[in-house]
From TrEMBL:
It comes from Prevotella histicola F0411. This is Uncharacterized protein. InterPro entries: Ntn_hydrolases_N.
């Protein structure tokens, strides 16, 4: 797991990331991962990664550095143009893997989908189910299809039809069904298609957070992207639209955006732990229902009022509870979030870097005190990106001693394969 954060204002953007990574399906955690990369050697743009450290078996650091090499001295007017060009690059390099590897990862995602359906069936309505029949699984696939068919689709799957997918993947799904002894190929194929098409996170997805400046931008931007795999020459990716930040004069002037393990940062920014907030909202809903039930019980004790008891108990309390929840959110924002953001507006680069590092360090401390794996930890890498100074490392770990490897830094800009607009 991971914790990364970006702090933005008009001066710059400070980014920070921990170094912890879980090795495969084991419970072993090592603290040596790099999660912040410059996207260009010459321009103020960078990318942070979280969740899966590889794209269909290829480490993301290799892919990002290959893109940086091809980009050379080229640049784009806006940060979002770098994101589009990066996606084009993945297509151009055939997703860094062959067709068989893509099908293998499709099978891996299919297996993950079926297992998640089985897990949901095995514990329905808060009660463990001992047996699962093929009929139960078929109904689960049908319900998934109904739930997802009208949901927002991933960018490159909006014009991709079920007929197209079936032509490409049906043989793979039949192979999987035979191996698992399931006579559900058609239902599974349809449900899996809508699962792949929907704009939802999957078990093998990676978060890429692009941050920095385009040539014509004087304030920083942040564009988060979620990428999982390639299917039939289509890249399964989507933008996290809720987390896109564009600092401007008339719009957003500052922002604090955490990714991956976000609970500690959100607790500081919002003034309340997200888990406790959910509990509070649940208690409000339950209390409203219990009050109606209590009133109805009292009414039934009197012959003249018991006819009103069913009417009272059927009253819809959702508008009232929604209003109460919204009032709590507004109060928390005005008391905690807004004053903090007003402070961030005026921070200089050094203080922004310290703030970003502190969010990660506090998350690491909380994980260390909790039972279970320390999924956030190790050295904290910190960088600041500004329009005038470009990308500046504040803290950075090396797997080698910099003082013994002067040639690495001397060669950083040598033998660069410049882009098409370079001399």
């Amino acid at each position: 797991m991971t914790a990364i954060v970006a702090v933005l204002n008009k001066h710059a953007v400070a980014i920070a990331a921990d170094s912890a990574v879980t090795m495969g399906d084991t419970h072993k955690v090592v603290n040596s991962a790099n999660k912040i990369f410059t996207l260009s050697k010459y321009h103020p743009v960078a990318v942070m990664t979280y969740s899966s450290a590889a794209f269909m078996g290829v480490p993301w650091d290799i892919i990002i550095k290959e893109y940086r090499k091809e980009l050379g001295k080229d640049s784009f007017d806006k940060l979002k143009d770098y994101v589009k060009d990066f996606i084009t690059f993945l297509h151009k390099r055939h997703f860094f893997c062959d067709e068989q590897t893509q099908r293998d990862y499709l099978m891996l995602q299919l297996d993950s989908f079926v297992k998640s359906c089985r897990e949901e069936l095995s514990f329905q309505n808060g009660v463990a189910q001992e047996k699962q029949t093929e009929k139960d699984l078929r109904q689960k696939f049908v319900s998934y299809k109904k739930y997802l068919e009208n949901s927002e689709k991933c960018t490159e799957f909006k014009k991709y039809t079920f007929a197209d997918f079936k032509k490409y993947a049906y043989a793979t799904i039949v192979e999987y069904s035979e191996k698992e002894k399931l006579n559900l190929s058609d239902d599974l194929c349809e449900a899996f298609f809508y699962y792949l098409s929907a704009n939802i996170e999957t078990s093998i997805s990676t978060g890429l957070v692009f941050v920095g400046y385009g040539e014509k931008e004087i304030y920083p931007s942040l564009y988060p992207l979620n990428i999982s795999l390639a299917v039939d020459k289509r890249l399964r990716y989507s933008y996290d639209k809720r987390s896109i930040v564009e600092i401007s004069d008339r719009g957003c002037a500052t922002s604090i955006i955490p990714f991956a393990q976000i609970d500690v940062t959100q607790t500081i920014v919002r003034g309340i732990n997200p888990t406790f907030q959910d509990i509070l909202y649940k208690v409000i809903n339950n209390t409203a229902s219990n009050v109606l039930k209590l009133i109805a019980e009292q009414l039934t004790k009197n012959d003249s009022t018991k006819v009103m008891a069913p009417v009272i108990q059927r009253l819809d309390t959702s508008p009232l509870t929604k209003q109460a929840i919204e009032l709590i959110r507004q109060e928390m924002f005005s008391r905690y979030t807004e004053p903090l953001l007003q402070t961030v507006i005026g921070l200089d680069k050094e203080d922004m870097a310290n703030m970003a590092e502190s969010f990660i360090s506090l998350t690491s401390l909380v994980r260390r005190m909790q039972p279970g794996e320390e999924t956030v930890g190790g050295p904290v890498d910190v960088a600041v990106i500004s329009k005038g100074d470009g990308f500046i490392w504040i803290n950075r770990k090396h797997y080698f001693k910099p003082e013994l490897n002067a040639s690495f830094f001397q060669n950083y800009f040598r033998n660069e394969q410049y882009g098409k607009n370079s001399i």
